[in-house]
């Protein structure tokens, strides 16, 4: 069965500190990995996807197939990074339509 | 450009009353459509998804149902609401199965 685990419900760091939001998945095949973010009073939206190898707002995510992890990292957290973050492994190109998400991690960046 | 509309934004309903939440997508055809419930500590739970008109898949057994009467319309319903149905409901769409999802603003449902 498809499963995604975000072990931390809440992560609190100080501004300028490094941040890592953990995501582990259990998935058949080779999933594509996404991170979504929801800022206060805004819509849930895509932050970044693994296939793009991109860095968005200073965030990067490394796929470790051996550890089946896709942790989201940023070397220097900013207060505006405070938000809810969801990890989402997807069967990219597959026929099933069930987009599943982790339970989310609330990131709080303190001044 | 594509947009997704979800309404109402907030809703207070008594226990036992019916429910109908509507979601429509503009600017695209044959989208994949999703209903989620977002709850603190429980994350984003997929309730239903649809890959085409009349095709509804349910992810969890519950007091809710979904319908897709038109290509870009997705409706979440209940015949009799329970207190436990209270929550924040999100509608989303994607171009293909399991690609980037675009979310609506959500509906805050309070069952009293």
Distance between the termini of chain B: 38 Å
**Basic shape of chain A:** globular
Helical residue percent band of chain B: under 10%
| Domains of chain A (count) | 1
CATH fold annotation of chain B? Immunoglobulin-like
Number of helices of chain A: 0
The shape of chain B, in one word, is globular
Category by helix and strand content of chain A: mainly beta
Strand percentage of chain B: over 45%
Count up the helices of chain B: 0
Q: Rg of chain B, please?
A: 13 Å
Q: In which order are the strands of the major sheet of chain A placed?
A: 2-10-9-5-6
Low-confidence stretches of chain B: none
Low-confidence stretches of chain A: none
Walk me through what this model shows.
The complex is a heterodimer of chains A (111) and B (112). Chain A has 111 residues and is mainly β. In chain A, the strands form three sheets. Chain A has a five-stranded mixed β-sheet with strand order 2-10-9-5-6, with no helix packed on it. In chain A, strands 3-8-7 form a three-stranded antiparallel β-sheet, with no helix packed on it. In chain A, β7 and β8 form a beta hairpin. Chain A starts with a strand and ends with a strand. Chain B is mainly β and 112 residues long. Chain B is 0% helix and 59% strand. In chain B, strands 2, 4, 5, 6, 9, 10 and 11 form a seven-stranded mixed β-sheet that branches. A four-stranded antiparallel β-sheet of chain B has the order 1-3-8-7, with no helix packed on it. In chain B, β7 and β8 form a beta hairpin. At the A-B interface, β5, β6 and β9 of A face β4, β5, β9 and β10 of B.
